[in-house]
Amino acid sequence: MSAEIETLQRMIDESERIVFFGGAGVSTESGIPDFRSVDGLYNQKYDFPPETILSHTFYMRHTDEFYRFYKDKMLCLDAKPNDAHKKLAEMEEKGKLTAVVTQNIDGLHQAAGSKAVYELHGSVLRNYCTKCKKFYSASYILESIGVPKCDACGGMIKPDVVLYEEGLDNDTITKSIKAISQADMLIIGGTSLAVYPAAGLIDYYNGDKLVLINKTTTPMDSKANLVINDSIGQVFSAIKI
Known about the structure:
Layout: H1 3-13, E1 18-22, H2 24-28, H3 50-53, H4 56-61, H5 63-74, H6 83-93, E2 97-102, H7 108-112, E3 117-119, E4 122-129, E5 135-136, H8 138-143, E6 157-161, H9 170-182, E7 185-189, E8 210-213, E9 226-228, H10 232-237
Parallel strand pairs: 1-2, 1-7, 2-3, 7-8, 8-9
Antiparallel strand pairs: 4-5, 4-6
């Protein structure tokens, strides 16, 4: 066991209110592409950049094109939880972890068994009719032809994900801030901390066990008590709870 892992293990052992703040790097190890890595969505060829397609304006004006991209690249329904997801769920079950705050929209934390999950950017697993609010599964969206329509009223169905130009859910923000501010340990994993306002939430942490686990450096590295530049799945698989 490396010195970094030993330090992480000791910090976890000494903590009782751990919060995990995660980004795309947690899901890439389950085969879900991110936006900014070498193999990410930004490096594939489309008529428009993903950031444009996944905006509120584009969704409203070019709904057909939005859904062609969304179904093709955003619905990874066969993905399974990896070691990081599973270990976080175990930490919650053992009473060590109080919340997962995630920027991901894939629902893999819940699939692994986590209960207290705050999804800052929503979830592809929740979809609703913009007219009557009837709920639809991700499978319904994936299997639909063209723009998904409500089978009850004919209204257009929208994924419950936060698009560019849209604000975060206030209740989710409030719960995330409360969990982070009350944490005695904050583990940040799989994120470059480049997406705001989500990344700004970590400023509410007041403790002395700030851990950053990411393959590359982040703007917060100098403020962390421990930095591990490695695969988050491999790091968590080495931890004993």
